Amino acid sequence: MPAPSPLPTYLYKILPTAPPTPLPDCLPLSDLDRNDGFIHLSTSEQVPETADKFFSEFQTLWLLKIRYEVLERGTNGDGKIKWEEVGRGCFAHFYGGDLGKGNVDGVLEVRKSRSWGESLRLEW
C-alpha cells in the first residue's frame, strides 16, 4: 500500500516505560520489534487507536517523536521506512536502522484520562 499523502511530519514510537535519559545512540528493540525484524511506528492519527488496542492497561506511555524526513534520509545511510498494510491501516515500519539520540526529536510522556484517544493530541 502506498504511503499517505501528504507524508507525515512526524512518526511516533510508543513505549510502555520511560526511555533512558539522556537518550543513547541506539535504544534497545522491544521484543515485538526484534521478532518482527522492524521497528513499529505510527502516525499521529494512528497513535490513539494503537495505544488503546495494545497499551490499554497502562496509565502512562512515552512517545518517541521522530521527524519523518530524518528517518527517510537515514543516519549513516542505514534504515528504510516501508509503508505496509496491517489489518486496520497502512503503518510505517522502519527496517535496518535504530532509534536513538541521532533521530529522535523528542520524548513525550502522556497520562491517560479515560482512553488514549481522549488523552493524545499529537502533531501530524
Q: What does this molecule look like?
A:
The chain has helices at residues 31-36, 47-54, 68-73, 116-119; strands spanning 10-15, 39-40, 60-67, 80-86, 89-95, 106-111. The relative contact order is 0.28. It is built from four helices and six strands, in the order βαβαβαβββα. It starts with 9 loop residues before the first strand and ends in a 5-residue tail after the last helix. The protein is an alpha+beta fold and 124 residues long. A three-stranded antiparallel beta sheet has the order 1-3-6. The protein has a three-stranded antiparallel beta sheet with strand order 2-5-4. It has one domain (10-115): Protein of unknown function DUF952 (ADP-ribosylation fold, Alpha-Beta Barrel), CATH 3.20.170. This is DUF952-domain-containing protein. Pfam families: DUF952. InterPro entries: DUF952 (IPR009297). It comes from Zopfia rhizophila CBS 207.26.
Structural class: alpha+beta
Topology order in helix (H) and strand (E) letters: EHEHEHEEEH
| Amount of helix | 10-25%
User: Which percent band covers the strand fraction?
Assistant: 25-35%
The largest sheet has its strands arranged as 1-3-6
Radius of gyration based on Cα positions: 14 Å
- Architecture (CATH level 2) name: Alpha-Beta Barrel
Determine and state the CATH class: Alpha Beta
Query: What's the number of domains?
Result: 1
Q: Number of DSSP strands? A: 6
Unreliable stretches, pLDDT < 50, 5 or more residues?
none
CATH-wise, what's the superfamily?
Answer: Protein of unknown function DUF952
**Gap between N and C termini:** 20 Å
Q: How would you state the average pLDDT, rounded?
A: 89
Shape: globular
The CATH topology is given as ADP-ribosylation fold
Largest sheet: 3 strands, antiparallel
Number of helices: 4
